[in-house]
Amino acid sequence: xxxxxxxxxxxxxxxxxxxxxxxxxxxxxRDLEKLILFLEKNQINSSPISIDKDIIQRFIYQIxxxxxxxxxARIISGLRSFxxxxxxxxxxxxxxxxxxETPKIGRKLPDTLSEQEINELISAIDLxxxxxxRNRTIxxxxxxxxxxxxxxxxxKISDLFFEEGFIRVLGKGDKERFVPxxxxxxxxxxxxxxxxxxxxxxxxxxxxxxxxxxRGKGLTRQMxxxxxxxxxxxxxxxxxxxxxxxxxxxxxxxxxxxADLRAIQQMLGHESITTTEVYVHLDKSYLRExxxxxxxxxxxx
Length: 301
What we know:
Radius of gyration: 23 Å
Helix content: 40-55%
CATH architecture of the largest domain: Orthogonal Bundle
Strand order of the largest sheet: 1-2-3
Strand content: under 5%
CATH superfamily of the largest domain: Intergrase catalytic core
CATH class of the largest domain: Mainly Alpha
Number of domains: 2
Order of helices and strands: HHHHHHHEEEHHHHHH
Shape: globular
CATH topology of the largest domain: hpI Integrase, Chain A
Structural class: mainly alpha
Number of strands: 3
């Protein structure tokens, strides 16, 4: 079995049988391509069937010089998944990564923004600019619904169910969920559709896409990152932020205001509640308030 054929079969397995998203499959593929490049540079003639633990370990040692422990752990996890697939399909009897240790890493909690910082970001948008109204709507929707950037740029007009108060979101692995959307965010979307988007002629295949660029095509992930980065510079925000920051802030602010963790899990589209627990960063003062308010042995006022 050659590497390219093995990767192609693996991609098909990840898409059809495991239902993973294109971004996740691309990430797994890049890790395998790094391994193939290592083999070529070192003139190692090993196939997916014959490669052994020692060669994998050499590759990991090399990778460790180039990436941080978190990325290293992710690559090892990706390789382990690939070789588990080969064992499952009975191409191999053993997984060469089973005895390879994964670097110890702590839980990395994403940055969060305060409500004031989010208001400052949105207020910094120049509404006199042709794309200002669109950009304000983008930030409002991301923060109001806790969307991933991939979910935002693929959001369609046909996904808006304003009478019911929900939007339909296509999440990781093409899994569909319905997320509540409040009146203010609905108002911004309708304003954008009627006053801005209606004057942009959508290109073919983008007729139903909600957010368009000036050429009538959908927005890219990088464009959303750039919009946020420029706004952060405008308000002299010292935090390093990304679209994920708004998603995390959405969850954190809901929890602090009393929302149930299970409800937040559903809105974020997390399969496991453990993911939501890691995702939602709680400061110690809030935890103390919870105990003092709800514990049966709390001190009397």
